[in-house]
Inverse folding.
């Protein structure tokens, strides 16, 4: 090893879901929305003044911040916007988790948390989920330097009731608690109403899942104005122009079309519930998912075998070769037609 390598910051990187590009594929591996963005997004895109691309975008992202604040009946100074919720969360880790005490997040959860913690040299502990993949709120009563968890959790899809989230907050008044709500629109209550009561709560959401905008990279955080100011201070010290002009304009169009949002959301939820019933009939077991995916295990056939068999047919799901979850598949909910094809393949394969 060269001597200069001693001064390199080394980290085991996050592994994103595979992004195949085949015309006949069914892509159920990265929790993307199977439906296109709002027609209003297409309309705004067609009318976009590309001459303005020569100018820097608004560093304060004023129009999008205002649209998000209006949607959730907040003030503009309660909203922070970033390049996807990953960017928002990374900024939050950098801003708020600077104690010598360990931060806490579940042992089975979004696998970017430990990557950020390692990268930023943040100590952490991972309380174990129970045997049904539920977060045990009592595990978060201990002394810590901050708390972060998704709700619903990923990759399990299990949602935590709002009263349990508040219980964690009430036991942790002196640290920042981040609730990562990437999948909240698909079936559980947001912690957002609690930000007026708890000034240490940051709620993070995204346009990538329920709003069909994963390709535009738009995420946002909501909390008390002091937290938002601190986040912006770090952002402006890191990169003043994080959001590009198209993302800002198209984000506004997406969040203002509530009718289309609700329409596609209900289609996904209806298909999810249909898929749950089909999977149960085929011998799969899983905790009840409130996200746009199902985390399932078959009683007889190993997950890795099913993963490979599906992949050979260009049906892509997510497999995690990790302790406790290496016999589960995370299955994104696609269109009804896609899920019928998926279930049809499983019926044929499992009957052999």
């Amino acid at each position: 090893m060269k001597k200069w390598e001693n001064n390199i910051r080394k980290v085991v990187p996050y592994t994103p879901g595979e992004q195949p590009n085949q015309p006949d594929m069914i892509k159920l591996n990265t929790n993307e929305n199977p439906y296109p963005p709002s027609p209003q997004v297409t309309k705004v895109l067609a009318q976009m003044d590309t001459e303005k691309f020569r100018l820097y975008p608004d560093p304060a992202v004023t129009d999008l911040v205002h649209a998000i604040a209006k949607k959730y009946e907040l003030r503009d100074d309660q909203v922070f916007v970033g390049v996807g919720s990953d960017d928002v969360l990374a900024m939050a880790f950098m801003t708020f988790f600077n104690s010598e005490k360990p931060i806490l997040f579940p042992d089975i959860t979004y696998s970017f948390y430990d990557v950020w913690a390692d990268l930023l040299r943040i100590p952490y502990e991972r309380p174990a989920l129970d045997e049904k993949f539920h977060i045990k709120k009592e595990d978060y009563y201990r002394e810590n330097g901050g708390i972060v968890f998704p709700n619903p959790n990923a990759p399990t899809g299990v949602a935590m009731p709002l009263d349990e989230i508040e219980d964690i907050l009430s036991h942790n008044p002196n640290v920042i608690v981040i609730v990562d709500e990437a999948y909240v629109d698909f079936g559980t209550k947001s912690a957002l109403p609690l930000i007026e009561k708890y000034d240490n709560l940051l709620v993070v959401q995204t346009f990538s899942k329920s709003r069909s905008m994963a390709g535009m990279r738009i995420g946002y955080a909501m909390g008390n104005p002091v937290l938002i100011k601190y986040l912006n201070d770090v952002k402006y010290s890191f990169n003043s122009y994080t959001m590009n002009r198209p993302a800002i304009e198209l984000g506004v169009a997406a969040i203002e079309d509530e009718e289309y949002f609700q329409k596609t959301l209900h289609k996904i939820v209806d298909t999810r519930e249909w898929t749950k019933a089909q999977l149960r009939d085929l011998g799969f077991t899983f905790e009840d998912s409130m996200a746009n995916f199902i985390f399932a295990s078959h009683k007889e056939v190993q997950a890795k075998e099913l993963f490979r068999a599906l992949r050979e047919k260009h049906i892509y799901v997510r497999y995690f070769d990790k302790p406790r979850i290496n016999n589960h598949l995370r299955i994104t909910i696609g269109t009804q037609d896609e899920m019928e094809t998926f279930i049809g393949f499983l019926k044929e394969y499992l009957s052999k």
Remarks:
- The two ends are 52 Å apart (CA to CA).
